[in-house]
Amino acid sequence: MVAQTAAGQPLWRCSGTLISARIFVTAGHCTESPAGHIEIWFAADVETNHNRLNPDGTPNPNWNGYPITGDVGGTPYTHPNFDPNRFFIRDLGIVLLDKAVKRSTYGRLPQRDQLDALSPGASTTFTAVGYGLQMSFPDAASWKDQALRIRMVAYPKLNQINGGIVGDFSLLLSNNANTGGTCFGDSGGPNFVGTSNVIGGVTSFGLNGNCAGTGGVYRLDRSWNLDWIYATFGRYL
């Protein structure tokens, strides 16, 4: 997804998940002001044909509209208790799509406090999905090579829950070469519980600029998230 101003100026890119034909779940820092409109692409590969012009300057007839016009647009909503200065506390955003997107399967919201039953360890894994950087490097050349707009999947393990820096609102998942992980641009993307389609949380934050060590995931299973979603968007679920 690409967040845009109300006038259509692209701002930033994030990831997310359809949980119904009209509701797209992402992170609050992806939908916050000045975002006034969202455009979403669903192809696994948005990198190919994302340039409007060919290398010779002629129009690309296969341009996929990135970052201006996606497969569907929508209106962003951010959790009412979201604080940009402490975004990780209520880092939840919703996009209400302008039209229905029909799929045979959608992501599912968790049950209330479902993740409390999980314990940190190598056997507790998630499936993380996003369109972000594959790796982060300090130099521009490496950034270019690793910033492909292609959907990637990783299988991080649970490192921390209910305590430490994550409190009762987030998780810390592994982020390394063995398990994979998340990076810039993956924000808002789903972290499915195990190999299910239950979204345990959305990718929220990193602890360093190298996308290494651990990644922070904002939990969806808390009452203050589920209550807001069902009360505000229940008719679309």
Describe the structure.
With 237 residues, the chain is mostly beta strands. It has 2 domains: 2-97, Thrombin, subunit H (Beta Barrel); 126-219, Trypsin-like serine proteases (Thrombin, subunit H, Beta Barrel). Helix content is 9%, strand content 30%. It has helices at 28-31, 140-146, 223-233, and strands at residues 2-4, 10-13, 17-18, 23-26, 37-40, 72-78, 93-97, 121-130, 152-154, 157-161, 170-175, 190-193, 199-206, 213-219. A 7-stranded antiparallel sheet has the order 2-1-5-6-7-4-3. A hairpin with a 5-residue loop joins strand 1 and strand 2 (10-13). The radius of gyration is 17 Å and the shape is globular. The model is unreliable at 134-146 (pLDDT under 50).
In short:
The protein is mostly beta strands.
Helix content: under 10%
CATH superfamily of the largest domain: Trypsin-like serine proteases
Which CATH top level class of the largest domain fits?
Mainly Beta
Mean pLDDT across every amino acid position: 89
Radius of gyration: 17 Å
Topology-level CATH name of the largest domain = Thrombin, subunit H
Shape: globular
Distance between the termini: 20 Å
SSE sequence, one letter per element: EEEEHEEEEHEEEEEEH
Overall strand count: 14
β-sheet strand percentage: 25-35%
Draw up the topology in text.
Blueprint: E1 2-4, E2 10-13, E3 17-18, E4 23-26, H1 28-31, E5 37-40, E6 72-78, E7 93-97, E8 121-130, H2 140-146, E9 152-154, E10 157-161, E11 170-175, E12 190-193, E13 199-206, E14 213-219, H3 223-233
